[in-house]
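In this section we walk through a basic example: taking a raw amino acid sequence and producing a predicted 3D structure, encoded as discrete structure tokens. The instruction is simple. Fold the sequence below.
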Amino acid sequence: MITISELASEKIKDMMEEEATPGLFLRVGVKEGGCSGFSYGMGFDDEVNDGDQRLESGGIQVVVDADSVKYLHGLVIDFKESAMGGGFTIENPNASATCGCGSSFRTATDAGKPAEAGEC
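The resulting token sequence is shown next.
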């Protein structure tokens, strides 16, 4: 369902080690907002909720809430290095449109709820 590239996996594992909290996993989700209607959320968690789906990708345990699953099938998380540093990128085959900042999207069947003008 979600693929994490080798480089992104290395970066995530490094960040998890820095947290020094046993049992952490990567939580990935979607919420309404952003310029295009939905925005991605990604962070560490150690608590699984009812309805969450668990999976493993790139040696990382990943948890997705039930409401987000339909928007994230086929998602690819990567890490890109650049002259300004680097950061995680998300490629979502379900997105029919994305914003310029790359952190929000909409699908062909669901536009979400875009944020006010100027909020990405």
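Looking at the output, two observations stand out. The two ends are 26 Å apart (CA to CA). Residues 80 and 86 are 5 Å apart (CA to CA). In the next section we compare this with other chains.
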